[in-house]
Amino acid sequence: MEPFTTHTGVAVPLKRSAVDTDQIIPAVFLKRVTKTGFDDALFAHLRQQPDFVLNDPAFAGGSVLFAGPDFGTGSSREHAVWALRDYGFRAVFSPRFGDIFRGNSGKQGLLTGVITEEQVETCWAAIEAEPGIAATVDLTNTTLTISGISIPFEIDAYTRWRLLEGLDDIGLTLRDEARITAFEAGREAWRPTTLPVGDR
Amino acid sequence: MTTAADTADAKPRPKTLAEKVWDAHLVKRGEDGAPDLLYIDLHLVHEVTSPQAFDGLRAEGRPVRRPDLTIATEDHNTPTIDIDKPIADLTSRTQIETLRRNAKEFGVRLHSLGDVEQGIVHIVGPQLGLTQPGITVVCGDSHTSTHGAFGAMAFGIGTSEVEHVLATQTLPLQPFKTMAITVEGTLKPGVTAKDVILAVIAKIGTNGGQGYVLEYRGSAIRALSMEGRMTICNMSIEAGARAGMVAPDETTFAYLKGRPHAPKGEDWDAAVAYWRTLPTDDDAVFDAEVFLDADELEPFVTWGTNPGQGTTLAGTVPDPDEMTDPQQRESARRALEYMDLKPGTPLKEIKVDAVFMGSCTNSRVEDLRRFAEIVKGRRKAEGVRVMVVPGSARVRLEAEAEGLDKIFTDFGAEWRFAGCSMCLGMNPDQLAPGERCASTSNRNFEGRQGKGGRTHLVSPVVAAATAIRGTLSSPSDIDAEVLA
């Protein structure tokens, strides 16, 4: 994973709340077996509406998304993160995120920053006043800057550290392999196993 | 979930069910804000969220650490007719074939289409007796919360986490808070577990459970079968919670005993003795508590585009203008536009084009029986398409052994093979744009059952009554018709 320190890019206002992962990427696009190439699938149904924000040329190449509360709720599909990332988004801001989505994002280098509803509306207003303006995301100082306004955002310390360092979770866990092996040695024999196949 | 100060106490701190299971799986306690490392007892795998995880293992030259704690089935993409023929949709077929290749290469047990144990992952685990009290269960699917009905800690994960569990059999996790949802009293006839959970979600909201493990408690929960408890835990994610749990009891043990992977002989006794220690201690404290009166619950239905937008079936479509919260008002307005509904319309006047009886929420044999009891000897309403999709091939066989298939086909319903089917329409089972469906599934999101499709979430008995009358109906409406 590439480290994330700062990023500056076109700010996109998504003026909706409760954007579930079915909206971010509908299920019909989950059939691919690769991790890339999902950019066309992002908001596929919504993009068929001509007035949807991503169809506005002012936001071409957008990379910082500002959404209403409860972004990324519902299905666990990590494809939602891949689609946002493939489209070019590096950061999403919302007052609240779905738990699984937020976890998935952190593992794929997509920053999810929490700001208040009032702050989201401030950002929406700034973008509307000047469509196509950039936002700067500074993860080192957990600050977001748009139209001269500086807004602190929240992200949990551990995810922030991993994003800054670009660390891979599996590698980190495998440093503790001896502990895992020791834990396994202490598991009760009657705990279920899938193999061998049980009798019917 | 305990702190260092707690462990220093001489007398152990009273714990909730969730805390006991969490603490029993700690490989390493996180320090300085780092997550805890938890051991995973059972990893369920399906074709949609696993291909990229196996690719990741291959790229790093890593094996599956514990194939004996891993099981895969084909469910999301699988067709529910003509299952003996090659899958027509090329991308679906590729995904299924990829799972088969990966399972073979990494030594993972797989139940493929046509196999007697194939079906929706969340039906298969319990049915095989693999889902047991006190274990940790994960799957790349948000409805993994289903397994919490056994007193397991079960939650959905993303594909990166699937790869992590395949490689290490562990998961780094930040501790959850705990919420007790206590449902006391007796459910009226025609009111089911589905109505309980829809009422819970309407009460606490689709984000009310965020960051919590929910524990469903109280006399109404204790009185439920395992199937009913699974329906409730299944939809915990729709309240924003990653996991929902019910303490194991005699109902749990009776369900498990004799299943293929349940402990046997002395192991059974040892396991039951342990399982009896799991229920929440009397003096344990939850971070939040919610109460529901079971006596007051009525059949429930959703009118909007998230599972929290629901009300009693006897009610009317709400008026967004009367909502005080601006976000809720805007969300309701958008939902009614998508659903093509007008405020004030009695819900029972809403006509449907389709009825879907299935999904990991309601496709166990008990669900099919309850649907069958109501439709038996009747014909479906003219012009309504009714699909009955069992949760697993085993459920299909059980239903056929009881003659339920004959009841469904005589009724005019389509009797299909097992899979996720129209719950999310990854296979050809989809709504057409503008079609309206009464569905026993779990999500009424925009486009969930097919682009432009409109979903009303209901229980199996409401689905059955609706299929008979062609408008959203409760079983009591059918009885009233008979009396008239």
Task: Give descriptors for this structure.
heterodimer; A: 200 residues; alpha/beta; 7 strands; globular; B: 484 residues; five-stranded parallel β-sheet; 19 strands
What is the gist of this entry?
With 200 residues, chain A is an alpha/beta fold. Chain A has helices spanning 21-24, 79-87, 99-107, 117-129, 157-165, 169-174, 177-185, and strands at 6-14, 62-67, 91-94, 111-114, 134-138, 143-146, 149-152. Chain A is 30% helix and 18% strand.
How are the SSEs placed, and which strands pair?
The complex is a heterodimer of chains A (200) and B (484).
Chain A: E1 6-14, H1 21-24, E2 62-67, H2 79-87, E3 91-94, H3 99-107, E4 111-114, H4 117-129, E5 134-138, E6 143-146, E7 149-152, H5 157-165, H6 169-174, H7 177-185
Chain B: H1 4-8, H2 17-23, E1 26-28, E2 36-39, E3 42-45, H3 51-60, E4 70-73, H4 90-106, E5 109-111, H5 121-127, E6 136-139, E7 153-156, H6 159-168, E8 170-173, E9 177-184, H7 193-204, E10 212-217, H8 219-222, H9 226-234, E11 243-245, H10 250-256, H11 266-275, E12 288-293, E13 300-302, E14 310-312, H12 326-339, E15 354-357, H13 365-375, E16 385-388, H14 393-401, H15 404-411, E17 414-415, E18 436-439, E19 454-457, H16 460-469, H17 475-483
Parallel strand pairs in B: 3-4, 3-6, 4-5, 6-7, 9-10, 9-12, 10-11, 15-16, 15-18, 16-17, 18-19
Antiparallel strand pairs in B: 1-2, 2-8, 13-14
Helix pairs in contact in B: 3-6, 7-9, 13-15, 13-16, 16-17
